[in-house]
Amino acid sequence: MKPLFTVRDLEKRYGSRIGCTDVSFDLWPGEVMGIVGESGSGKSTLLSCLAGHMTPDQGQVHFDGRDVLAMSEPERRFLARTEWAFVHQNPRDGLRMAVSAGGNVGERLMAVGARHYGNIRETATDWLGRVEIASDRIDDRPSAFSGGMQQRLQIARNLVTGPRLVFMDEPTGGLDVSVQARLLDLLRGLVRKMGLSAIIVTHDLAVVRLLADRLMVMKGGRVVEQGLTDQVLDDPQHPYTQLLVSSVLQV
Amino acid sequence: MTALDAYNFAYLDEETKRMIRRALLKAVAIPGYQVPFASREMPMPYGWGTGGVQVTAACLTPDDTLKVIDQGADDTTNAVSIRRFFQRTADVAVTEETEAATIIQTRHRIPETPLQEGQIMVFQVPIPEPLRFLEPRETETRRMHALADYGLMQVKLYEDIARHGEIATAYAYPVKVEGRYVMDPSPIPKFDNPKLNDSPALMLFGAGREQRIYALPPYTKVESLDFDDHPFVASKADHACDICGATESYLDEVITDDQGGRIFVCSDTAFCRSRQEDAA
């Protein structure tokens, strides 16, 4: 087996300040990796560089043997809407708020050439069902949805083309705990069922504990510790990781 | 001093015409692509056809015969004032007959009489960007055109069907030119869309306020976007003209009194009149 996604010596600077530096890892098919760290630790910068939203200053990114950074923009856009998916923290960034739920889910299909209305609608209905949105809401706009529903709709919209790699930026941020729990349950089910690889950026250790196979801890733009999730969380080695783990409130 | 001496031929100065002709050449070379141009102030308000007038001014020669229509009619305010403008500033021959015209400036219609080789259609365009109401950022729509990233246009048609059960867009119906650029055909009714395809005439589109020119050279392939299971239909009112009896022309509904009385008449007045004369 070959890794699906490889990153070598990735660096992004903002002027003289470090965004992230010296990041290397392999992501294997079906593997979920969590990236944790405090605000400003470079985890969002890293995710943006990986997903092609920002150009890193140094390093290599390969997806399925292809050099992502050397791709032309049409190629990268095509990749981004077929084999990749990006779930934003704020569903408003990832959804078209003036377009119905069905249209939101169908957009990726139409962008890759689907031209049969009945089939697009059927697929959209199926996906709304998978993310537990009632099918009679298909013609409602996302602005009429609750925060949790919007986030689930965003997930449906991203997964409809059957991507192999999903980037998630704080997918549960801004949701209350019971909605968070449902969303996590749903995500875990979808990731396992579809055999997705995923990179999840979060500051919530509970999220990675539940979803991630492997964990990367970042501080000041550098990776300070990485390993299996349970290993890192149960036996943190780096002082910062120890601090992070111990600062979670035990109820 | 006659009116003609007071102005340069066709109002615009020669430098401006050259600039517009350059934009026109580029537009013809890349069918459906919106070419920016330095639109001038014209002695009429935006929305009255400042783009079309500039294109016409740049194309006119003293030997041309000009026809101007507004919603198909030769005798409405917009058509009359633009026709008179070019009579005064260029002293060109004018006509109401489609066959006799060499340049036809139009707002919102293509004449019913089939166009011929050598004729030029000039369209007045309010908003040249077909993606504008879906994506407000010009930088982004330009990138979408550059990458032929047109899924969003299809989303608009999807929304139409989801909400109305059919593609309810009745005018400014988006088209794809030569399999490449998606273009707004200006607000002509979708009934006229098939006339754009493979037309022997040169079609020029001018948007004055938005400062864009685009074009369809003769015999260009123009397809209206649709879905496989909801194909494009060039719809019109299901009626015959109450004056000339034509069943194949595009109709206007005219309210005749406050008792609910209404008639349907040809929107192309020249076409309607020639049929009446033939019948008489």
TrEMBL record, chain A:
One Gene Ontology term from the biological process aspect of the record: organic phosphonate catabolic process
Gene3D superfamilies referenced in this protein's UniProt entry, alphabetically: P-loop containing nucleotide triphosphate hydrolases
Keyword Transport listed: yes
Predominant location: membrane
Name of the protein in its database record: Putative phosphonate transport system ATP-binding protein
Domain called ABC transporter: residue spans: 5-245
Membrane topology: Peripheral membrane protein
Keywords from the named record: ATP-binding, Nucleotide-binding, Transport
SUPFAM superfamilies: P-loop containing nucleoside triphosphate hydrolases
A GO molecular-function descriptor: ATP hydrolysis activity
InterPro entries in UniProt: AAA+_ATPase, ABC_transporter-like_ATP-bd, ABC_transporter-like_CS, Oligopep_ABC_C, P-loop_NTPase, PhnK
Matching SMART domains: AAA
Localization per Swiss-Prot or TrEMBL: Cell inner membrane
GO cellular component, one term: plasma membrane
Organism listed in the record: Paracoccus sulfuroxidans
TrEMBL record, chain B:
Alphabetical keyword list: 4Fe-4S, Iron, Iron-sulfur, Lyase, Metal-binding, S-adenosyl-L-methionine
EC nos: 4.7.1.1
Enzyme class: lyase
Biological process, per Gene Ontology: organic phosphonate catabolic process
The keyword Transmembrane appears for this protein: no
Keyword check for Lyase: yes
GO molecular function, one term: 4 iron, 4 sulfur cluster binding
Record-linked InterPro entries: PhnJ
Reaction it catalyzes: alpha-D-ribose 1-methylphosphonate 5-phosphate + AH2 + S-adenosyl-L-methionine = alpha-D-ribose 1,2-cyclic phosphate 5-phosphate + methane + 5'-deoxyadenosine + L-methionine + A + H(+)
Pfam families per record: PhnJ (PF06007)
Signal peptide: none
The family this protein is said to belong to: Belongs to the PhnJ family.
Described function: Catalyzes the breakage of the C-P bond in alpha-D-ribose 1-methylphosphonate 5-phosphate (PRPn) forming alpha-D-ribose.
Protein name per its UniProtKB record: Alpha-D-ribose 1-methylphosphonate 5-phosphate C-P lyase
Native source organism of the sequence: Paracoccus sulfuroxidans
